[in-house]
Structures are given as C-alpha cells and as structure tokens.
Write a structure and sequence with these properties.
Blueprint (H helix, E strand, L loop, with lengths): L1 E5 L2 E10 L2 E9 L1 H48 L2 E4 L2 E4 L5
Antiparallel strand pairs: 1-2, 2-3, 4-5
Length: about 100
C-alpha cells in the first residue's frame, strides 16, 4: 500500500497478489487518497499493536504456567494422582 506520485497527482494504490503476480489497484487520488491512506495506516498500526499485546499476554501466561506447574504436580501427587498420557489419573489402590 502506498501513496504514489503520477503525472503530478498523488494517488493511493493498494497492492494485491493475483495469480502469483503483484497488481496495483487504484483506490483514490488527491486529498481523498491521503485521507484513505492515513486511515488504512492507522488500522494497520492498531492491528500490529493488538498483535504485540497478545504476544505479550501469551508470554506472561507461559511464564506463569512454568512457575505453577511444579507446585500443582506436587499437590496432585500428594493427593494420590499421577500424570498419564496428558491427564491426571487417580492411582489404583494396592489390594
């Protein structure tokens, strides 16, 4: 996406891949082109910030899991459970 200067006029073109080739698609020219470009850029920046926030939250959650997993495992084992094939199971009593 970008503003381009052609024949003395500012025009806004979006780039799109069609059948493996990049094609320029005309959107607007003049002041409208600048406004649409700014709106699209703001949307793109907001989405990038949202993605960065989600990544940060995922990292924090991963750290929390790493810190709490040993505590939870110890508690479950003390209650008579064992971890088998991805789930906690109650140990069979020895008869």
């Amino acid at each position: 996406m970008g503003l381009e200067r052609r024949d003395g006029t500012t025009a806004y073109y979006k780039k799109q891949r069609i059948n493996g080739r990049v094609v320029s698609i005309y959107v607007a020219s003049g002041e409208a082109a600048v406004k649409l470009y700014q709106q699209d850029r703001a949307k793109r920046e907001a989405e990038e910030k949202r993605q960065a926030d989600l990544t940060s939250i995922a990292d924090l959650l991963g750290e929390w899991i790493q810190k709490t997993e040993p505590i939870i495992s110890q508690g479950m084992e003390e209650l008579g459970y064992h971890y088998h094939r991805g789930e906690w199971r109650k140990r069979r009593s020895k008869s």
